[in-house]
Amino acid sequence: MTDAADHQRRPGRRRLPPLLTAGAVLVSVVVLLPIVFLVVQAVQVGWAQLHQLLFRNLTAVLVWNTVSLLLVVTALGAVVGTLAAWFVERTDLPCRRLFTVLLVIPLGIPDFVVSFGWRAIFPGIGGFWAAVLVMTLAVYPLVFLPVAASLRAADPAQEEVARSLGLGRLRTFWTVTVGQARLAIFGGAILVGLVVLAEFGAFEILGYRTLTTEIYSQFQVGFNEPAACALSVILVLLGALLLGSEASVRGHGRASRVGAGAARRIRPVQLGRARPAVLAGAVLLVAFALGVPVGAIIYLMVQGGNSTLPPASLLIATGNTFAYAAAAGLVATVAALPIALLSVRFSRRRVMALERSNMLVLAVPGLVVALSFTYVTEQFLQGRFYQTSPLLVLTYAIMFFPLAVVAVRAAVARSPVGLEEVGSALGVRRRSVLWRVTLPLIGPGLAAAFALVFLETATELTATLVLHPTNVQTLATQFWAYESNVSYSQAAPYAGVMVLIAAVPGYVLGRWFDRQPELAAVAGPVVVPGPGTLVAA
Amino acid sequence: MKDLRINGVTKSFGPQRVLCGVDLVVPHGSFTAILGASGSGKTTLLRIVAGFERPDAGAVRLGEEVVDDGGHRFVPSEHRRIGYVPQEGALFPHLSVGRNVAFGLARGPKRRERVDELLEFVGLSGYRQRYPHQLSGGQQQRVALARALAIEPEIVLLDEPFASLDAALRASVRADVLGVLRRAGTTSILVTHDQDEALSMADQVGVLRRGLIAQLDTPSALYGRPGDAELARFLGESNVLECEVHDAVAATALGRLAVEAWTGPANGGRARVMVRPEQIVLGEVAAGAMEGTVASYEYFGHDAVVRVRPGSEGLPDLVVRVTGGTPLEPGHRVGLSVVGTVVAWPVEPAEPAISSE
Questions:
Q1: Spatial separation of the C-alpha atoms in residues A107 and A511, rounded to whole Å
Q2: Fewer CB atoms < 10 Å away: N or C end of chain B?
Q3: Which of A4, A13, A441 lies closest to B14 in CB terms?
């Protein structure tokens, strides 16, 4: 190792630039506001009342409903996602490339649209097992993508070695393949858990009561803020538990990344007589996860004809959704810059702690963020800012901030300080170097960060329902209004536009992230913010 | 005509002292190599010259101008006219070869002409439209050099530019780069941990050790007359033997050897003497001569290295370099003799015996 490399590895020896540091600290404080507000609210409600609200039968039922669903969906999602990834990456499954595409697309379809599609085609479904089915179909890509990426990065020769050492195919799969991908599987599973905790729309449509649906109805319908607060505290604690377990497992997982892994292709595993069955399974998965929601939307739109739909309101809602999503994307990307710059160029313990503190917001569902802002604007600002566009945009930016940080970080890492030094040694002024070297290099990554937040915002439902200005309708709020009225064919076009906005570019972005070596290496979950991001550092 | 003068430069990173008062003069038009082990501070020194790092104290002068005095006086790197070629070239990945080379040139009609000229100079005409990822490591290195030369720099700084190339390519890229720099007549500083590279390329070599220039000399003087045993080891394989020196003759286990430039007491001083592997000649066992048995034989094609266990007790194995020929079986008995003069350093009485590395 040369000492120049050492120098780049330990850039922390330089002093932190004060302006950048101040910016990063300010941003972190704002991002953590929802948690602070929740604590403030809980304190105001008081322990006596909280105690009473927390230890009653209803709470136990809701926690049971939520946790049991979380465990089952997480386990199923992990199994389905891992198997699908292995079949696509390592076996002679026909049309593997096509399946890679088709299996990833459901990631972009909002969970409540999947739920809507199933409900529209099978009106009778509901309850626990319906929720399990819908959520598993909606979330398995969160495991599929990182596992596929890590299998691609891992050395396939290890499987051959295991076979040569006398292990059977199943044991090889279990010990070697699952072993190689275990960090990715676990990271994806944690993501699934967080998504299940935060989900509201899908459960509401299926009539399944969880903590989130109850918080929403206590707050929106019953105006019972203390009860909503108490349940939010439970929800956030559960989320923190998931994040914590993720972090603790990460700490032991380093050894699984040995070497750079071989890029060479090996002969895929021959499925033999199992091939038709596996193919059928893959087709079924695509049909359930992608075919049903998309088919339902198309069916409902065709069936509804052109009679009742006023296209103007669809256009207006689309415009509003675009405007909010663009604003949120811009705010989150710009806000992520100071933290990303600091953590890439001055990686030292305090900076890392600052960066990671932002990831705590992953444990806070959008509904809780929205409620905490509602509470504070009502209590301390006499309702000012409540249901205004700036507050809504801020809420989005906070919710999807970890996503922006990961993407911007990857972008900043593409422009090493060394290149800027070469630029200035060539007699070019610093500002000019910024325009000619730094920005062209990090530009695509910044665009990706913007696009990620944009997509997530465009399909966000829960916080939008709480905080959108009453006279401004978005795709999500219009969809929800029609859906709640059981006007399915009128709701369908809104769902359709959301799927178009999210699924197609979402897929492209997913592939882009897949190709970022530093993200693939840690199996950083893609497109959706993830605990994997915690370690992208 | 601008020499580079470095006076008493010190630099610490936190509690870690990296440079402890470095003095160095690089004459105009010369090629100087800074040789040091990992972590010896050589890259830091280079970065101070480039203006990427500030010294804690000391001064850097380019000709008459002080470019950094560790205090208020500081000329930023963009005003120093220093060509910097970092490890792996650091080409701008988003710019074509032509635009990389043109990066430091002012816009104007002559720019294109100048870029073509430079690319031809480094032997890459016709590569203007290519992108860095389409080039081999050696080609990238030459583009980086052309880019650095474009601004007609006072000094070209090369920071381990060949470290990332594979061994087969390294020698030819080294020769190419050296040729380009000689023809350009530029003052050059090369930082490296590879003594072959330093000795073969440079007019003068400075060995940086524990934050100080331990010795600054021509390659042949450095190799032939290293200042101490540690330097001798660092610059290539050597046999260091304990001995007594009388009248500039060392009485060693290998016989009586003439000492060059003896600085110790004239009559009777304990000393250490360095014998390079190529100074030892293997022959037939003869009466009265030193002898030993072959311990190992490593064949390299152009030459071979033989480890010989001396006949007398208490002596370390000797490293001997011989020209190829027939392999010697381990256990084979050989006679040993030394050609040429040797270097010896007086030993202070309190100094402990050297340990073999």
A1: 12
A2: C
A3: A13
